[in-house]
Structure formats: structure tokens, C-alpha cells
Design goal:
CATH superfamily of the domain at 9-62: lambda repressor-like DNA-binding domains
Distance between the termini: 27 Å
Structural class: mainly alpha
CATH topology of the domain at 9-62: 434 Repressor (Amino-terminal Domain)
Number of strands: 0
CATH architecture of the domain at 9-62: Orthogonal Bundle
CATH class of the domain at 9-62: Mainly Alpha
Helix content: 40-55%
Radius of gyration: 14 Å
Largest sheet: none
Shape: elongated
Strand content: under 5%
Length: 82
């Protein structure tokens, strides 16, 4: 299973592109799959800070991924539980 720990837009950009390509999808094919234009997929991949949460969740679901939010653990500090 592929797991990504993304902390920056640059890391999100690389992850989205890698996941799409791993499924053998062009931007056009992926856009058709999720109901977005190739141009919008390109903008999202090149400027992931411009993606809406709804679009990000849709893209991740189509790629067989999910978004997990967890606290950053500091050295020697256990993660907080809610």
C-alpha cells in the first residue's frame, strides 16, 4: 500500500501526479473519470493550493486513496488523542 505524508503543496503536487500516472491515466482520462476538464486537472496538479476540499476528496477517492488527518508528533511528545 502506498502511503504519503504530505506537508506542503509541492508534496501534494508530486503525490497526485504519481498516483494518476500509476493508474496509467492521462490528465484527460482522469478528468473524464472525475467530471473535470483536462485543464482543471492540470491546474490542480501544478497548483494544488488552488484545489477545493471537495475536489481533493473526489480526486483521492477516484485514485483509491483517502485523506487521513493526524497531529504531527514532536520528538518525545506522544500524539494527542481526541
Amino acid at each position: 500500500m502506498t502511503e504519503f505524508h504530505i506537508k506542503t503543496p509541492t508534496q501534494l503536487k508530486a503525490a497526485l501526479r504519481r498516483l494518476r500516472r500509476a493508474q496509467g491515466l492521462s490528465q484527460s482520462e482522469f478528468g473524464r473519470k472525475v467530471g473535470l476538464s483536462q485543464e482543471r486537472i492540470s491546474v490542480i496538479e501544478n497548483h494544488p493550493e488552488r484545489v477545493t476540499t471537495d475536489q481533493l476528496l473526489t480526486l483521492l477517492m477516484a485514485l483509491g486513496m483517502e485523506l487521513v488527518i493526524e497531529p504531527r508528533s514532536l520528538a518525545g511528545t506522544p500524539p494527542r488523542t481526541w
